[in-house]
Amino acid sequence: MRAISTLALTAVLTLSPLAAFAQGATGSATPADAPTMRADRGLEIAKQQIDSYNSFVKGNAKFEPIAPEKQVLQMAAGINVIGGYDAYWDGGETQFSMGDFAKIRAAGFSTVRIPLFAFKHLTKDGHLDGAYFKRIDQVVEAALSNGLTVILDEHDFEICAKNADECAGNLANVWYELSDHYKAYPNSVIFELLNEPNGQVDDKIWNSWLVDLLAIVRETNPERNVIIGPTHWNSRADLPLLKLPENDKHLIVTFHYYEPMTFTHQGASWAGPELEKTKDVRWTGTPEEMKKIADDLGGVLLWSQAAKRPVFLGEFGAYNKYGKLEDRAAWTQAVSDTAHKYGFATAYWYWDGGFGVYDAEKKVWVKPILDALIPK
């Protein structure tokens, strides 16, 4: 069985999620004392380690370091696809085809963000099962073959928010697996450590965790760019609380933007009873509305300049249950244009469904949303 990180072991021993991370919360977790687990992983995965070095040897697939600022420019406009809830990940039928990556590229997108719910695919000894890896490989290689940058995003944020003890060990194991498996892949594969940390994963816990997680990734990927976002669901307001290792220069910072929620989430059942009952809220691009977006994203730009970290707007979108298409397109255009004006890469939420830019039933783009997303 694989050893787990010191922060995860503390969680197991103390039972209390918050007390479990007292050491990290006081800021004592550093790259120097982060766990070194490779020696404890066992001979049973030696072949996997060797094979993963050679798992993607097509053409010019060799990894070469790229500055995160340059990579953000290349990422440009992106989209979230094949979320972890998709039946594809369990071998079921899905409306998404590997051929859709060609459509995504042809439409003008440069990046795809793949939300992975990897925890449920971990074996008892902490390894990701082979069938799951084959499905991820299929997605990654199809996207790469179409010239897209691929973000592998660990998306089990709800489990982490409710049970930090469970999350700690699982998250460490997932990143041992993913980082080892994809270490030979080109720099156009990027890792995102955890989507929207919140709940029990507050800023003190998250700042200590990210040091350990980066230490895991850096064992096999010392110069691959890694995406990290702040707490409270990747809130821009929490950017000043984010404490990144100063000596790690291969980091990209992400945030999510859905403001105003009364517009972007009106009618959304998962967003709480008040927003579920909200309807007929308009967004028409008034001077006040435009200024709000410019000011909100401008604050992120100021933080980025001061911190000297490039920025990726990893999610933004407006739900279609009650939102008018023309309003949703206008809001999307305003956010997308402002983000790109400020030098941020973007990924729209989502490919299909309630936020969708693509109608998977009719096999056509939702043209007003698509036009709003692709920089002119």
Describe this structure in words.
The chain contains 16 helices and ten strands. It has 376 residues and is an alpha/beta fold. The strands form two sheets. The protein has an eight-stranded parallel beta barrel, surrounded by five helices. The chain has a two-stranded antiparallel ribbon with strand order 9-10. Strand 1, helix 6 (100-107) and strand 2 (111-116) form a beta-alpha-beta unit. The longest helix has 21 residues, at 287-307. It is globular and about 50 Å long. The N and C termini lie far apart (52 Å). Mean pLDDT is 87; it is low at 8-60.
Write a brief caption for the model:
The protein is 42% helix and 12% strand. The chain is built from 16 helices and ten strands.
Beta percentage is 5-15%
Structural class: alpha/beta
* Beginning-to-end CA distance, first to last residue: 52 Å
Count of helical segments?
16
Uncertain ranges:
8-60
- Helix-strand topology string: HHHHHEHEHEHHEHEHEHHHEHEEEH
- Roughly how much helix do the residues carry, as a percent range? 40-55%
Overall outline: globular
Largest sheet: 8 strands, parallel, barrel
Strand order of the largest sheet: 1-2-3-4-5-6-7-8
What would you report as the Rg, rounded to the nearest angstrom? Answer: 20 Å
